[in-house]
Structure formats: C-alpha cells, structure tokens
Model the fold of this input.
Amino acid sequence: MTLSPSPFRPVLARLADHSAAWAGAILVVGVALLAWSAQLSIPIQPVPITLQSYVLITLAALMGWRLGGLTVAVYLAAGLMGLPVFSGGRSGLEMLTGTSGGFIVGFLVTTLLVGWLQENWAQLRPLPLFGVLALGHLVLMVMGAAWIATKMGPGFAFERGFLPFLPGAVVKTVAALATIIAAERFSGAPRSR
Done:
C-alpha cells in the first residue's frame, strides 16, 4: 500500500474548509443523518440491523477522518448523554455496556479508519475505495461481535452478531461506493484512474 504525498480532500471536507458556518452545518446534518438512519432498522436480537453503517462509512469517506471523526464523536456524546439517537430511540451510558456497545465504539474507529484511508490511499479510486468501505464494515462488525462474545459467548456472537449483518454489509458497501462517487463527481472532483 503506497500512501500519497498529498492527501485527497473529500467533498464535504472541502466544503467545510470554506467557513465555520459550512463546517457547523455539515456536522449538524451528519449527526442528524446518523440518528435518523439508526431508526431505520430490522429488529433482530441481540442487536438490530440498521441503515446506520451505510450512512457511517459514506460520511466517513465524504468528510475525511477529522470532520467525520468529530461528527461521530458529537453523535455518540449526544446519545450517551441521553438524547434518543441510537436505534429504537435508545440512549444513555448503559448503551456502552449493553449488546450494542461494541458497535457504538466501532462507529468512531470505523469512521477514523475509512476517512483516513480515503484521504491518504484510496483517494476516490473505485476499487481501492470499495476495499476501504468493505474493511470499514468488517471492522465495525468484528468489534460489535467481539463485544457480544464477551457477554454471550463466541458461537452466539458469530451466529447472531456477525452472520446476519453480512448480506446487508455487502449491499450497503456497494450503495456507499455509488453514493460517494456520485457526490464527488457532482462536486467536480477529477476522475481517478
């Protein structure tokens, strides 16, 4: 993996560079999208399947690791302080100790990873970007399942906290790739080879 000497600036990071007002607006919209997508769920146990991972990796690649990381940190802080932004309108510090705790911590790790790799390596090239997005989903799912394993055992975690998320992760990764490329092209970003 060769890193570029000059990082790629994703479209929302470029827009946020224009002013603090743009940066604030992008952050607020990002937090709102994360909260909204958490409510679109298939209620399975022990953790619901939501649209949130699609929004998470898409925003990470469109914002970069700094703005994306800040957006996710604000979202997590809002939920942990009691705002009903997690799936099912849940909130509070107990979310970290519940079955969703690994996924919640994984949101920040995944955002930083995807944002950094997009800026410094993938740089909108479709195949590397697909790999970065898939890796982001994998990291999120492994962190979530690993936490469930500490509570319910590894077999249960694999069967109920990892496998059910695989088909959706594939679909959401492809959808995220298409969304990111479309947004960057619409913004006038040059085509990558």
In short: DSSP finds eight helices and two strands in the chain.
